[in-house]
Amino acid sequence: LGSDHGGFALKEEIKEYLTGQGIEVRDFGSFHPEAVDYADTAYPLAKAVAAGECEKGILCCGTGIGMSIAANKVKGAYAALVSDTYSAKRSRLSNDANILCMGAFTIGDKVREELTTVFIQNDFISGSSSQVKVDAYKEYDAER
Ligand code: RB5
Questions:
Q1: Which residues line ligand 1 (CB under 6 A)?
Q2: What's the rounded Cα separation, in Å, for the pair 96 and 136?
Q3: If 130 and its partner were Cys, which of 9, 23, 86, 94 is the partner (CB 3.0–4.6 Å)?
Q4: Among 8, 10, 38, which residue has the most ligand 1 atoms within 8 Å of its CB, making it the best to mutate?
């Protein structure tokens, strides 16, 4: 989990939600609600996910936009900015996203927990019609 100041309260909420379900969480900060740039959290979290140290990542900022752009600069990070449950599910089934980005200013209280659950409970469908598309961006990424 990671956030900037805009996503701090949301990140804390998601942490409580996940730990309450017995899911192990690593917190990349921010550890306080004062100003912190989203890239300072997005890079270390995205690197940990890309390295396989963490199974998946969740990044929260005001809109989720800064986090998603920053995380997607890291090789092996596939961050999806999502605000509805259908997209959260497709981000895993079709896109094999490994990081969920959410906007604290834009997503309703109940939706944010559902997005989290849908994201962590679904897996990419290997060999589906999406495989070739996902392979294309992973190959491009590997060659960077
Ligand atoms: C707040 O600083 C806001 O700019 C940030 O949380 C995020 O929305 C940027 O994408």
A1: 4, 6, 38, 61-63, 65-66
A2: 12
A3: 94
A4: 38
| Predicted confidence pLDDT, tens digits, the chain (144 residues) | 999 999 999 999 999 999 999 999 999 999 999 999 999 999 999 999 999 999 999 999 999 999 999 999 999 999 999 999 999 999 999 999 999 999 999 999 889 999 999 999 999 999 999 999 999 999 999 998
The residue whose CA is least distant from atom 9 of ligand 1 is 66
Using DSSP, state whether 132 is helix, strand or coil: helix
Pair of tokens at residue 67: 């986090």
Under 8 Å between Cβ of 69 and 107: no
